[in-house]
Amino acid sequence: MKNLVILGAGTAGTMMAARLSRELAPDGWRITLVDRDDDHVYQPGLLFVPFGMYAADDIVRRRRRYCPAGVTLDLAGLDRVEPDTRTVRLADGRSLSYDVLIVATGTEVDPAATEGLTGHGWRQTASDFYTLDGAKALAKALDGFTGGRLLLNVVEMPIKCPVAPLEFLFLADAYFTERKIRDRVEIVYATPLDGAFTKPRASQALGGMLTERKIAVEADFAAAKVDGEARKLVGFDGRELDYDLLVTIPLHKGSDAIARSGMGDTAGFVPTHKHTLQTLAHPEVFALGDCTNLPASKAGAVAHFQSEVLVENVLRFIAQRELLPAFDGHANCFIETGHGKAMLIDFNYDTEPLPGRFPLPGVGPFTLLEESYVNHWGKLGFRWVYWNLLLRGEDLPLDHRMAMAGKWS
Predict the structure, then answer these.
(1) Are 151 and 272 in contact (CB under 8 A)?
(2) Residue 319 CB contacts under 8 Å (≥ 6 apart), including other chains
(3) To the nearest 5 percent, what fractions of the chain are helix, strand and coil?
(4) Strand 245-249's sheet: what is its strand order?
(5) Domains of the chain
(6) What pLDDT, in 10s, does the model give residues 340-376?
(7) Residue 46 — φ and ψ, nearest 5°?
């Protein structure tokens, strides 16, 4: 019997387990899905927890519920991989052998990597929203916030969902406006980028929206340390930014287990072929989702598009056929802009976000690079799609390749 092991039962790993179980289980393959706990968090929902739009129970479900029939879910946790012997070592001392390995270990936030961040005031006057505990702490902090400076800082790129910091800013502007205290709140965005976003056209549009909402931008800001007692964020260039409430997007890194395995780069991300999704060092090992070092967004939509390519390439590898260089970096993201509206962007490695209609050319119903109420409901509705279709590996009416139909320059 042949063994396929998938590391990580998050979005990417669960989708791959569902898709490959249908293809390989009938041929006698044993598929094992490895993770460290039974809590699957709908990560796009973390953004809404601080503003009271979602509760924790709305975005957490059991992983076992989404493990496909015929797949073994092992929650012992990963200790390391020994690729030379094709062995996965589990945290409880057991080992699994594999013929094909798929790495979908995601990325982790590391707030302790920034000096002082987890010291005085952590989870009170400073917190993240990329973890459930952090999002709940911010909900409490925002509820008691009556005025002052809210400072949002991205410590370093890359991060999960690159648009989420902007979404938080737009939602905060709307939240304080609805509470009728916006005139008592100064909102500042400190980013290591030279603008609002990585893609020029989107950066221009989103930067204009920040200006309209009177959200100040401190660009090219590299955070060095936090003084929690003085409530100051200090940059490596000497700039000091005061805050009353610090919203941090901490340093992101790859899995510690992948680092221990010697399979990651200096940040722990897995070097991966940008089109085939085969790892560069080991041909029988593939990677997708947030764990890779690819220049694509670390987002669920990207993992979905990658999964469609990777299923085909795993089957080709098993059949000893040439892999298809089919992943083009395709990403699309809803961007909450507050007051019941959202924007949608669609792009890939080579093409930046363009205006237009999506997914039906000229029809939509979603608008690209433009705010609309329909886009907002599309983002909220995606939660149902995620739990009922995406995680179960069902086909969606979206091509993994970016289409130019319906877009204009």
Answers:
(1) no
(2) none
(3) 30, 30, 40
(4) 126-127, 245-249, 148-154, 185-190, 215-218
(5) 3-107+254-318 (3.50.50.60), 110-252 (3.50.50.60), 331-390 (no CATH)
(6) 999 999 999 999 999 999 998 888 899 999 999 999 9
(7) -60, -30
